Structures are given as structure tokens and as C-alpha cells.
Amino acid sequence: LAKTTQPISMDSYEGQEVNITCSHNNIATNDYITWYQQFPSQGPRFIIQGYKTKVTNEVASLFIPADRKSSTLSLPRVSLSDTAVYYCLVGENYGGSQGNLIFGKGTKLSVKP
Amino acid sequence: DGGITQSPKYLFRKEGQNVTLSCEQNLNHDAMYWYRQDPGQGLRLIYYSQIVNDFQKGDIAEGYSVSREKKESFPLTVTSAQKNPTAFYLCASSITRAHPYNEQFFGPGTRLTVL
Q1: Are B75 and B22 in contact (CB under 8 A)?
Q2: How far is A87 from chain B (nearest CA, A)?
């Protein structure tokens, strides 16, 4: 069972910055934090991964405080096309010897015009 | 253009029939996976394969079968023994299973409906 906690849903408007926070109090020393995005009726897509401090790519930023017990996915200036479910994954989300990913419910982000 | 493809996107089947879902990748990945997703739920692992000619059952393998005769192909057969097959099926691949934090690449999915 995944030991991450994230909001079930969030609403935003076009052009705003959206921050989705994930709590992972039991994160292990060697765990990375990964975020995936899933649009309706599509497969999930890797967005970003980090271990500590800040990671930025062309899609998003990931902020990880020093204690690593939480992380925040930041989406700058969202558009309607960013409406999707966002999943936070840490060690418990990786299926051990099977290698599979275990997705929880994720955060359903709805972007309005 | 590298990626992972699944076909068909939508599939309808009558009860009692077997049906095969296609999954192809040209990413040269060793590991491939089949997941099932039900409405509002997370992904559940059906089968996975670490290398050609080898595959292992996942958490919900009953009523399903797979083959891995080629590195790039990992077809899934939904048999008549699967009691509730209507779902969204996702195929994924990764470079290797040995490094768990490697990115998994997902196909667009096949939505199977049993009539």
C-alpha cells in the first residue's frame, strides 16, 4: 500500500501556478520521489523525479525540503490541457521484485478557463 | 519516433470469447508490463516480463495469458476464464527492472468492453 498522501482534487484557472503537495513521512534514505501525469483514457506519463532540494524541467518543478517528508510539484501557468490526475510515487509505490508501479488515487487537477 | 503502441484503442468482446491485446515498443527496453485500471482506481499488475522468453505473474494474473517471443512485443490474451474483463488495459516498458526508479513508458491503453 502506497504511503503517500496527496489531495484528492484541486481546482485552478488558466494562467495560474499550481502546487500539489505530497506527504511521505516514512520515506527511506534511498527513495526517490517521482511524479506521473495521466490524462483521461491515456496511459500515465513521467513528469519529474528528484531526491532532494529542487529539480526543474521543461514541464514542472519539484521542491523537496531538507527532511524529505513531503514534496511539492509545481506547474507554472497551467492551461486547460493540464487537466489530469497527478500521482506522487516514493519507495512504497515501487513493486519490489516485480518492478511494477503502484499508483494510488492521485490528485485530480481541474483547470478552468 | 520511439515509443510504445497498443492496439486496438477500443475492443468489444462477447462473453466466452478470448481476445488478444497488442503491445509493441521500439525503445529497446528489456522489461515490459501489463496493468489493468478500473474506473477511479489505481493500476494493478497482471503480468510482467524482464527479458525475452520469460514472464511472471503479477497480482491479478488469473484469466490472462501472455507471451514474450520478441523483445519488442508483449501481447496479452484475455481469456473467457477472466470473470470481469471490462477495464482499461495499459502496457508499459522500462529499460530494465533492476533499477526501480527508471522511468516507465506507458502505451495509450486499450479499453475492453465485454458485451
Answers
A1: yes
A2: 10
